[in-house]
Structures are given as C-alpha cells and as structure tokens.
Design brief:
The chain has six helices and ten strands. The chain is an alpha+beta fold. It has a five-stranded mixed beta sheet. A three-stranded antiparallel beta sheet has the order 9-8-10. The two termini are 33 Å apart.
C-alpha cells in the first residue's frame, strides 16, 4: 500500500496548514498502517517546537467519505478502511486533525521547575504507570529520539536542538512533506529527504546538504 494522506492542521491563529503525509510515515516495521503513528505525526506537525507525547494531547481525526458524510477515525481499523476505500476510488484521503494539549498536562508543566530532560526515558516517563496501550508508539519513539542527546557522547549537539521541518519543501522521490531533518537539494529545483538521498544511485543530479535555517 503506497500513497499519501493530505493532513489538515489548524494552528493557534486559526490558520490551516495542509501536509502531505506519505503512508510510510505511519507504518509499523512490518509495513502495517498504525493509527498511533498518525497521532504521533499530527502532534509533531502541530507542536513542531515542543516534544509532546500522545498522553499529553487530545487528537481527533475527521474526513468526508465517498458519500460526503463526516466520519471520525479513532482506530487503526478505521484508518485502514478509509485509506483502502479512497485508494480503490483513486482519490486522495483528506483528513482534518484537531490537536489540543490536555489541560492537566499544561498545569502540571507550569508548576514544575524548568529542568531540561537529558535522556529519552526521562523525556517520556519510562518508569511511570501509564497503561501500555497509551505509551508512545515505535514511530514516536524513533522520531522523538532525534530530539535527545546521545547520553554516551558528550560531543553531540545540545539537547534543546530539534530536527528542522522544511515546511515549504516536498521530497521529489517519496512526495513526503514537510521534509524532516536534513534536506538535500540539486539544481534546478530537486529536493530529497534523508531516506531517499541514501537510496539515490543516479548521477544526473549533484545533491548538496542545505542549511536547516532557523525555527
């Protein structure tokens, strides 16, 4: 199953941002589509400057089906069903994500000392008693690990550095947008994400690593 989802997210100013999310971004290691992975993507796109888990946010997905009825997606089964129906009809699935931080987590954060976590376990609360089905999924763990220092290497980047989102650029190979992390550019106007750059075996383009700029 290959394709994209057009994911619409509304920011604090009421402005809509539409992102092309490749199916590979929401797949598990065995290739199956995961609802929790889609949750992780939506949270990361909505709060790009803050590392949040699914425990800290309310996320609701809605779309209009082929009968033009508004449908809520709340499970992997419903997500797979929506993708399957739209692919069979050769249409792009357009999903609106309502992503909000939970009030309890906002209050708790405001009352804590502003101490920067230094390991991944501290970041996600590995030792708490959160039910297993609500712990961060494999995609979120892999994505979040980009934000944390390698605790065994003191020469790595500072812990508050996060992967840059190239919100106005799309990978010309897998069509994912935004490009997360390093972006490789070639004249006249070709861009690749890290994964596609590593898989590129041609010689018609001379790719260079672009500066990631500022947030």
């Amino acid at each position: 199953m290959l394709g994209i989802i057009k994911l619409r997210i509304v920011d604090d100013n009421g402005l809509s941002h539409i992102h092309r999310v490749h199916h590979s971004y929401i797949q598990e290691e065995n290739g199956s589509i995961s609802f929790q992975n889609l949750v992780g993507v939506a949270i990361q796109l909505r709060f790009s400057n803050t590392l949040l888990s699914s425990d800290e946010c309310h996320v609701i997905f809605k779309y209009y089906d082929i009968d033009n009825e508004c449908v809520t997606i709340s499970s992997t089964t419903e997500l797979f069903d929506a993708i399957d129906k739209f692919e069979k009809s050769k249409r792009v699935l357009r999903v609106t994500a309502n992503v909000r931080r939970k009030t309890s987590y906002i209050k708790e954060t405001n009352n804590k000392d502003a101490e920067e976590p230094t390991t991944f376990d501290e970041m996600i609360g590995e030792n708490d008693e959160t039910p297993i089905d609500e712990t961060p999924n494999l995609f979120f763990r892999a994505f979040a690990s980009l934000f944390i220092n390698d605790e065994h290497n003191s020469t790595t980047k500072k812990s508050n550095e996060r992967p840059f989102l190239h919100c106005r650029h799309t990978c010309d190979e897998c069509r994912c947008t935004p490009i997360v992390g390093p972006r490789y550019h070639a004249a006249p106007d070709v861009d690749l994400c890290t994964k596609c750059y590593k898989n590129y075996n041609g010689n018609e383009f001379d790719f260079v690593l672009e500066e990631q700029g500022k947030w």
